[in-house]
Structure formats: structure tokens, C-alpha cells
Amino acid sequence: MKNNNMTPSASAQQSNQLRSIAGDLMEVHGLLSLLCNELGGGGIVQARHLEPMLARAVPKLRDAVQAMNEISSPQGDDSRQPNPLLM
Asked: Which of 11, 36, 39, 47 has the fewest CB atoms within 10 Å around its CB?
């Protein structure tokens, strides 16, 4: 019977990565909720009010998608093309 010591470490690392992704996505959800409230209020919305929210949300979403793709793809599988909508 083999004792594979890599599995618990890899599992813990993946768990930490998922927690980090969840935290980022919760922050993005909050930012996008603020954006929806801003846009749903009616009236004129100035881009300078929206730009900071989007500037914080978009990179976090890109990072989360990239990390989830890395977790879900088999090791060494670079055959997937990046989603051009997320670039």
C-alpha cells in the first residue's frame, strides 16, 4: 500500500485557493450590486462614478476565472484557448 503524502498538501492548497476565489467573488458581487443600484436609480449616471467599481471588479473576475480553469483542467493540459471575452 502506497502512502501518497502529496494528496493532503495538494488538497489543502486547492482548498485555500478556492477560499481566496470565493472571497474575491463575494467582493465582486458587492461591487456589481452597487453598480446595479447606481444604474437602477434612474437619472443620469456619470462614468466617473462607475469606473472605479468596474476597475476593481473586472480584474478580480479574470483572476477567478483563470484560477478556476487551472483547478478544473488536468495538469499539463494547455490545449484550451483563453476566452477572448475575458481578456
From this structure: 47
